[in-house]
Each structure stands twice: as C-alpha cells, then as structure tokens.
Amino acid sequence: MTAVRPETTAQPLSDTSFPTGFVWGAATAAYQVEGAAAEDGRTPSIWDTFSRTPGKVRNGDTGDIAADHYHRYRDDVALMKDLGLKAYRFSISWSRVQPTGRGPGVERGLDFYRRLTDELLEAGITPVATLYHWDLPQELEDAGGWPHRDTAHRFADYADIAARALGDRVGIWTTLNEPWCSAFLGYGSGVHAPGRTDPAATLRAAHHLNLAHGRAVGALREALPSSARTSITLNLHQVRPLTDSPGDAEAARRIDAVGNRIFTGPVLDGAYPEDLLSDTRHLVDWGQLVRDGDLAEISRPIDLLGVNYYSPTVVSLAADGGAGTRNDGHGASDHSPWTGCEGVAFHLANDELTAMNWAIDASGLHTLLTGLAASHPRLPLMVTENGAAFDDYVSPEGRVDDPERIAYLHSHLDAVRRAIADGADVRGYFLWSLLDNFEWSYGYSKRFGAVYVDYATQRRIPKASARWYTRVIGGNALPV
C-alpha cells in the first residue's frame, strides 16, 4: 500500500498560497453516482426504497443509473487525473459489499472498489473511503434501522469487511458522512430515507450512529496498518443568532446543541452536553439509551475530523413561541428535523443564493474552522465537502460556463486559506462534487458537479469551474 500521510508543512503563507502538502480533491457518494443498483449482488438500500415511494423524490427520480460511475469509473479516474486531482473521496455502498447488512462480504461488490482504488493509485490519486453515506441496507431498516442498537453492531462488522478487503490500498478512512442528516432528516423530518417522522427515534438514531462510529474505529484499527488514518465527517452548523437579544442567543444555543454538540460532545469530548440532555429529556430516557461503556467507545481517538460546509444557520426565537419560519436549507416537511427545538425560527443569512436557496457566506467556513482549532487544537481538519448548485447548461458551443461557482469556490477557498493563516490545522479540501449526480430528494434537478453530466448520454463535460480548480491545484494557490 502506498503510504498516505495527509500532513502539511507549516510555513508562512502568501496572500494566496496553501501549505506544502495540502491535499486537493473532489468527492462523491455511492448512491448518487454509481448506478448499477441491482448488479453483482447489490440489494436495495433505504434510498432505493425511498426514491420509489411516490412523492418522496422530485420527478420520481432514482439512483438506478445515476452517473453510471460503476461502469465508467476508468474514464472518470482519467478525467480526475486530467483535472489534476490529488485525492478522490468516495463512499462504499454497504448493500453492495454486504447485501443484507449481515454475514460475509460479497466479493463481486468488493471487487468494484478494488478496481476503483487500483485505478486511482495507478493515476497517482489518493483514495479516501467513506464507509457510510446514508445508504443503509433495507433489511437493516426493516429490523429497526438506526434507532435500533443492533445496527451499530452490524456497522462494525461491515467496517471490518471493508477494511480487510481494501486496507492494502486505502490509507484514509471515514466512518460516517453527516450523521446529523441520517438521524434528523431520515427519522425526524422524513425528507431523507427512510422517511420516518419520530422525534424519539431521531435521538436514538443519533446515539446509535455515534456508537457505530466508535465501534467502526475500533474495527478499522484492528484491521488496518498502523499508518492508516481514521476520521468522521460532520456537517457542523455554523449557528448565528439573528440579533443580540437573549432570546435569539437561547435559540442559537439550542440549535447548536442538537445540530452540532450531539455529535462533537461524545465523539471528541466523551460526553453528551448537559443542556442537550435537558432540552430533550422529555423525548428520550438518556440514562437508559446510553449504556455503560458507550461513551468510551464513541470517543476513541481519531486522526482527522472531516468538516462539510455550505451555508450558515441563522436563528431567532419565534414570536409568541410559535413554530416560526424554517429557512434552514433542509427541505420542506410538516415535521421539523430540529428535535427538541420548538419555537426556533430560521432565516437566510443574506439574499445571495445558490440554486438550493442556500445563502452564500464564506465567512461561516472561516469561523467554523478557527472555532474547531480553538476548541480542539491537536485535531487535524479536512474540508471534506464544500460547493454549490447553480442552474448550469451547455452552451451552443458545447461549453458549461459557471462563473457563479468559480466565485463561490474562490471565496470559500480563501476562507480556508485565512483559517490556516490564523492557526487552524487544515490538511486538505474536497470539492463537492466531482460530477453532477442524484441530489437526494431533489433528484436530478440540482447540479453540484465540477463536471457536467448529460444524463441521457452520460457524456461528461468539465465546467469552467473544473478548469479553474485545476489551476488552483497546479499552483497550490488561488489565482490572482
């Protein structure tokens, strides 16, 4: 296995440069790009089921074909090499390599990831594997899903299978991607698979995702070489009160507890915050849910923390204790994902919006990274997702010009650079996404990719932003 050390060399930064050794990459997720939904032993995940449920996904879209990465991975890796990528963050489909979520791995499924990682290494691109990007095997959901404690045991077994199959090729491993979305959008608001709306189940799911992470870290350390790195990726909400009022400060505290510290507390500090337990004790018995030894397992040391950022979260206390507006960027539902946070209203940070109606504000990324560096100074960070959807189209000349995305990326990369200059140990940046893809409940209506995908033909067209990103990587600096 090629030794992978995602480390940077401390040095003074120029106005536009990044440290030597900074990792430049792009990211995807299995269900969003692979397709081949029923090939080589793969069985349905919760997203296969959810996308086939009428009314759950725009236009009835599914990930059956997606960007057909399963069949086109060689061409896609060649494209990555042409773009100058140094790393590729992909996720492994659990139901492709362990179809029922139990028992031995399926070699046909594992072989795809062996071929993919071999192709990446041959191209000089570092593979970065994520074990879970929301596609729980449907059989495990039928048995109770993430609110059921046994799912955490099953995840550790799956981590062991993946690590033993790919540990000679992959040196950086992420356990979970955005467990907040898995728990709070999947079991709270129901806008993500499996589409349940049960506040108590949401909190149980969050704890069992934390437990799954800790047990998976243990399994990875048992199976992988000592040089391998383990991590978790969190979509931490950069929470801001709308005003300086005590009420808005209280709203921000509550959202920070259920949006951030429900994961950072146990994973990084070994305890759930007391205010979170107090806010939600009417929904779940934490003393019964959290068993002896759980927190020790959850807080196993990790080597990196992945940080996903798109937009800040601005909140206020709703007038008269009402429900308030919910411009939180997390989809429309009659059920709030913010369990235990009744009476909080959400606002857009400004009126400069992406196609997702997410406010563009790069200062939130700088604040997030420097805040993490202050609270956990010895923990290296990676920006594992950052990007934007815009209404991209192919011009008559066959080009895809996306100046809005270039401006977005420039401002956010400058925020990363400034955070490093201010002392944050940020080791790398992964653009979301390499390819246009299946954007969850939005189907194929939103395009995040640096590469345009014509879904009818599967033709790939690098956008102007992809070529701009190539310049950034080549110079290890922002273009002047």
Automatic annotation (TrEMBL):
Catalytic activity: Hydrolysis of terminal, non-reducing beta-D-glucosyl residues with release of beta-D-glucose
A cellular component annotation (GO) from this entry: cytosol
Record lineage: Bacteria, Bacillati, Actinomycetota, Actinomycetes, Kitasatosporales
Organism the protein comes from: Streptomyces echinatus
PANTHER family: GLYCOSYL HYDROLASE, LP05116P
Pfam short name (any one): Glyco_hydro_1
Stretches assigned to coiled coil: none
A GO molecular-function descriptor: beta-glucosidase activity
SUPFAM superfamilies: (Trans)glycosidases
Annotated residues for binding of substrate: 32, 133, 177, 310, 432, 439-440
Matching InterPro entries: GH, GH_1_N_CS, Glyco_hydro_1, Glyco_hydro_1_beta-glucosidase
NCBIfam families: BGL
Superkingdom of origin organism: Bacteria
Active site positions, chain numbering: 178 (proton donor), 385 (nucleophile)
Protein name, as recorded: Beta-glucosidase
Family stated for the protein in its record: Belongs to the glycosyl hydrolase 1 family.
E.C. no: 3.2.1.21
Enzyme category, top tier: hydrolase
Gene Ontology biological process: cellulose catabolic process
Signal peptide: none
Protein keywords: Carbohydrate metabolism, Cellulose degradation, Glycosidase, Hydrolase, Polysaccharide degradation
